[in-house]
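pinging the channel bc i need a second pair of eyes. not urgent but kinda urgent?? the chain im working w is below, pasted from the shared doc
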Amino acid sequence: MGGMTTAGFTTLDLVVLSLYLGGVTLWGAWLGRAQKGGTDYFLGNRDLPWWAVGLSVVATETSTLTFLSIPGVSYLGTLAFLQLTLGYLAGRIVVSLVLLPAYYRGEIATAYTLLERRFGTGTRRFTSAIFQVTRLLADSVRLFATAIPLALITGWPYSLSIAVIGLLTLVYTYFGGIRAVVWVDVVQMALYMVGAAVALVVLQTLIPGGWGAALSSAAEAGKLTWLDFSPDITIPYTFWAGLLGGGFLSMASHGTDQLIVQRLLTCRDLKSAQTALVGSGFAVIVQFALFLMVGIGLWAFYEGRAFAQSDAIFATFIIEALPPGVTGLLIAGVFAAAMSSLSSSINALASASAYDFWAPLAKREGDEFALLRAGRVFTLIWAMLLIGAAILYIPMSEGSAAVEVALTIASLVYGGLLGAFFLGIVDPRANQPGIITGMVVGIGTVTALWVTSTWVVERVLVGWPWFVLLGTVVTMAVGALGSRVADAKGFTSRPGGSG
């Protein structure tokens, strides 16, 4: 699958895009000039302001998938995806009250240190490994989504486009660490939000009758519906799936995923972290609404025309319909979205590798300089793995929205992670053998359900937003039972042990 050339990208657009890519890469690298150890490289010396962290959280979790995929979701369907944001906000509130206080008791470097204190080293390594595999798979899909517009512009094959984006992001992530990731995220989020707003303004001028006509025709077609109270669990976007499924997804992603927890640990204190987290929930609602409306406008502009890939709809509009200079700005917004997500993923994966595996095994847990050097090595390794996995995804991408693919992949394991954290809080008898057994069964159950739906019966049995809730319940039930069986048979291990 190769790229498609177009005459819509002018010299002015190329200048705008090049200035952005060069400027942000050099600035990000410069931000890391004073780093002296692992705490600075991975946690920003725990002194970053809450508002910057909150914007970084939003940029990290929605990024390219929001920019390219969400307009495609409403183009093909309705505004029903917005129901998920209700759960996203509710889940953040729970995390800020339940899990964040635990993270701020003592010097914790990764989310999985908390599980080690409760259950033992084996649990920490097992959950960290799950995070790393899941993040590799989900974020490689995100990276692929960003190669679409670059391939449209240049005519390059997707593999080369992926490599260029990945290598540029690697430069500032390698040198700048988490401080560069957060501050560049702030700029990048502002850029792609401006880009979306510009698209809305341009659509007003291009659609006959403007937004008034677009909304009228969309309403007649039922595309402005956003609330669906159906109890049918096979429908992915309903009020109940959004509130409960989205809530559990948000609790897992923002309470147990190192990608987000690492951001929150860079805040100066617990109150700042809570403010950053809950504030990001409100920002996400606004952001999703904005990009869903872009999709409605595109539907009116293209009059429902069919596209081979839903993720290519907005990218095609940017290249073909926008005036010179504006196209470059919007493409820079796509890159901003991609690079914010990718840089966050690379740094979070490197921190989990360094703190959860390398430092304990190498007996270098207190060696700040050694952690810094190891962190940069792991940064290189994970960047290469993400680029490679994104290239491998190319042949599987036909007809699927990257946002749904990435969220589904993450949802398969999030229930297992969230169940482990919750069980550690509510069940004093929970132990390491029981927790690991519960996670294996919980993740296995959801994965088996997804595989059966996708390849065996070839129809939706349970909508993906329910996966985290289902996985959490199974993990907690099996984990509680397994803990008691292990305790009765004398198989429990002490926290801090390797058993």
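so Residues 1-7 have pLDDT under 50 and may be disordered. and The first helix runs from residue 11 to 31. — does that match what u expected or am i reading it wrong
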